[in-house]
Amino acid sequence: MQSHNPTTTAAKSLVYFSNLDGVRAIAALMVVVSHIEYHKTNFGLQQLPFSLQNFGKIGVTIFFALSGFLITYLLFVEKDKFKKVNLKDFYIRRILRIWPLYFLVVIVGFFIYPAKGSSNALWLSVFFLPNLAFCLKMLPAIFDPIWSIGTEEQFYIFYPHIFKIKKPENILNALIIITGCLIILNIVVRNLPESNRFAANLSLFLYYARFDNMMVGAIVATLYYNTKHPAFIFRFQHVFNWVFTRRAQWILTGAFFIFIHFYLKHEIPQGDMVMAVIAALLIVNLCEPTTSLYTIGNKPLQYMGKISYGIYLLHKYPLFLVFYLVEKYMHGSNLIIQNLVIYVATIGAVIALASISYFGYERYFLRIKRRFQKVISQN
User: Fold this and answer.
1) Are 146 and 108 in contact (CB under 8 A)?
2) Across-strand partners of 377?
3) Could you give the angle at which helices 316-329 and 20-38 cross, rounded to 10 degrees?
4) Which residues of 198-237 are buried (b: 16+ CB within 10 A; e: fewer)?
5) How far is CA 312 from CA 52, 100, 289, in A?
6) I need a labelling partner for 19 at 20 to 30 A (CA). Which of 306, 337, 338, 340 fits?
7) Distance between the two ends of the chain, CA-based, in angstroms?
8) Backbone phi, then psi, for 133, in 5-degree steps?
9) pLDDT tens-digit readout, 211-269
10) What is the widest separation between alpha-carbon atoms in the chain?
């Protein structure tokens, strides 16, 4: 029986950045840690003396920047080698990677788990508008991380069509123009009178749309691909090359931790865009292990990066179970012991559940997905 794609494995391009799985793992764990602290109050448990609510926002922003970066780089490889992007295969790959676990979570959340959502939230989730349901406070907390999956799916509807543009420099120009328009739209809407309820809801929806975060990753990927495979002259190439120097990496790393310090205490206007830029520039450095200051490609992080989709979507189920058990059997116990149990048990159970999901369910669809790949990526 012939496979869908007659292209042999030897003819396919292999793209693998060993550090990017580590980026996924760290971003996923940031979200888990943030939700551990955020949901403690729901179970009458004491939070840590410092706020980690925005820690999860930073993790999600890193996810979006990484997604825009990697998708763009892979599309450039495909376009360069095969002269065009096969849109049908692109959408089939996205469906096989995203839909199986997403719809499993939707089915469990709306029909099996006791905290069922409304019918409106169900239909919004079915048609990949969970970010709208999230903004309208319709999604039960146990599976509300699905909001970001809706954002990515909405992004994928239009994004690959940009690669119908023939010249790479015009693709870069289109990405910059679209990003600029998104930033301006966000700023304008956020500064409308607060009494305008529609404007307030639109501002919240645009924040959770996060297309601009993914576009930042896409722009950096375009510049990186053109640096490795020159197709046009970029006027500020010397500035981009400077990003790979040790001095620049130290500055970016310092900016990353300084930003986290302040963002955990204060809401920073357009803070997600600032973090998206810093994250995208750190990500592109991690793609060059010979010049990168550090590596995060060790086996534990690579493993957690591989199962990070399950970690992200499923982590609140073991989290709420651990909270229930701690509240019932350890309420009033030593806070250090209590938090040690919460963190170790939650992270361990999340990794176990995500592993079961990956090897027992997701991997079946990933094997089918490979039939539609012209560019093989292990990330």
Assistant:
1) no
2) 15
3) 40
4) ebeebbbbbbbbbbbbbbbbbbbbbbbbbbeeeeeebeee
5) 17, 14, 27
6) 340
7) 28
8) -60, -35
9) 999 999 999 999 999 999 999 999 999 999 999 999 999 999 999 999 999 988 887 87
10) 65
Amino acid at 263: Y
Rounded Cα–Cα distance for residues 212 and 178 (Å): 8
Q: 332 CB contacts (<8 Å, ≥6 apart)?
A: none
Distances in Å between the alpha carbon of 249 and those of 128, 245, 291? Answer: 37, 6, 10
> What is the distance between the alpha carbons of residues 190 and 155, in angstroms, rounded to a whole number?
21
* 3-state secondary structure at position 329: helix
CB-CB contact of 305 with 20 (8 Å): yes
CB-side neighbour CA atoms (13 Å) of 320: 12
Residue with tokens 């509240």: 327
Name the amino acid, one letter, at 320.
F
User: Which residues lie across from 375 on neighbouring strands?
Assistant: 13
- Could you tell me if 86 and 78 are in contact, meaning their C-beta atoms sit under 8 angstroms apart? yes
What whole-number distance in Å separates Cα of residue 261 and Cα of residue 256? 9
Length of the chain equals 379
pTM of the model: 0.92
The residues near 369 (Cβ < 8 Å, ≥ 6 apart) are 92, 93, 96, 97
From residue 30, alpha-carbon distances to 134, 272, 347 in Å are 20, 15, 11
Question: Tokens at residue 95, please?
Answer: 């469906």
Q: Is 196 helix (H, G, I), strand (E, B) or coil?
A: coil
Quote the CA–CA distance of 102 and 310 in Å, as a whole number: 9
Residue 208 CA, distance from chain mean position: 12
The answer to whether residues 312 and 28 touch, using CB atoms and an 8 Å cutoff, is yes
Distance CA 309, CA 102 (A): 10
Sign (positive or negative) of CA dihedral 22, 24, 25, 29? positive
The three-class DSSP label of residue 233 is coil
In tens, the pLDDT along 110-153 reads 988 766 678 899 999 999 999 999 998 999 999 999 999 999 99
Q: What six digits make up the tokens of 104?
A: 């499993």
**The token pair that represents 279 in the structure block:** 């994250």
Place of tokens 């981009």: 240
Which among 173, 221, 212, 223 is positioned nearest to 70, based on CA atoms? 221
Question: What distance lies between CA 210 and its chain's CA centroid?
Answer: 10
